[in-house]
Amino acid sequence: MKIKSPLAIAALSLLSAVYMFATLVAITVMSGNPLPAFAQENTAAPKDPPHSQNAAPLDKKFVMEASQAGNAEVDAGNMALRKASSAEVKAFAQKMVDDHSKAGNDLTSAANKAGLTPSKDTPPAYKSVASNLAALNGKAFDKAYVNQQLDEHRKAVALFKEESAKGGNLDLKEFATRTLPTLEMHLKHVEGVKSAKGF
After folding, report:
1. Which of 126, 136, 120, 135 is closest to 156 using CA atoms?
2. Distance between terminal CA atoms of the chain?
3. What is the pLDDT of residues 47-87, one digit of tens each?
4. Are 107 and 62 in contact (CB under 8 A)?
5. Helix, strand, coil proportions of the chain in percent (round to 5)?
């Protein structure tokens, strides 16, 4: 009998091991049992990194200021619906209530994804503004409200432009970019009311 070389013996051992492994896999699959961990391929898709990670200071500032300004818009708009004498001013006020209520909900959704909580308050300076508006009636109220809205929407447009261009959180940047055209439309609207009414 011819003696086999060490290389031939090693090759036969390798083939035997492969055959035994293939047989084990086939039996396991046919029995419905899961494959051993080393025989399974990791096909799980990598998870996207959450947008909430590392919210930048600018994002936090934006959420606080945008939410407070939006609350003030809704409050002032509701006051104008009660006190304004001009139909044009009341129509503008109704749009402010509707649009800023929706924007507030959208901001809350984006902020929550970023791990931030919008403010439920109005800006500190608004308290004195609201007090002054509440003391006025008729055309005097209309004029004060329109001028206040003109000033606030200029600030809002600047705030949203900054977040849209420089914000670090994707959800908040998207919200700011999506909402900015509406704020610019509000600004043009109130400029038109001011011009038409001679305020």
Report:
1. 126
2. 116
3. 444 444 557 899 999 999 999 999 999 999 999 999 999 99
4. no
5. 75, 0, 25
